[in-house]
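Reply to dn_fold:

You asked what the input looked like. This is it:
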Amino acid sequence: PPPLDLEATRDPAFTSGFWPHPVEGGMHYMGRRWANMTTYQCASTFNSYGVELEAKVKETAYSPAAGFKMTQQMHADLLAAVPASHRRFLSEMQWVHEQPVAWPPGMLVCVHAGLQEGVSAEEQLAALRARDLSAPALHDCGDKGRNPAFCGRA
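and this is what came back:
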């Protein structure tokens, strides 16, 4: 599949509530939101690797009293703290697990946040198997910045 321009997944209308710093290779908008919002409980991940987050004081219209002061140093600290074996595990992880079962319909399908209603399951599964973020079947109503299989249903 053609590579997806990860930086193009953020709607330019969004001006706060996401990781603002450049990331080599780009960062999908969902990852940018995760890394700067208390809503997604990223602090537990950062803390599990020994990287402390400092809560923001400034409230935003999008997320009152939520979020963290995110510095480029924190990004560097997290990258340095995550062992190579963890990075390899995450980068090689399947996006979908399909397990034959003895009961109808004969297959158990596991996806992080589920498949999107109203979109062909086979198209979504094919894109997930191929790890293809550019596949329209994975976009929420054409929005390449939201992927229900990873963040919840539309």
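The mean pLDDT is 81.
Hope that clears it up.
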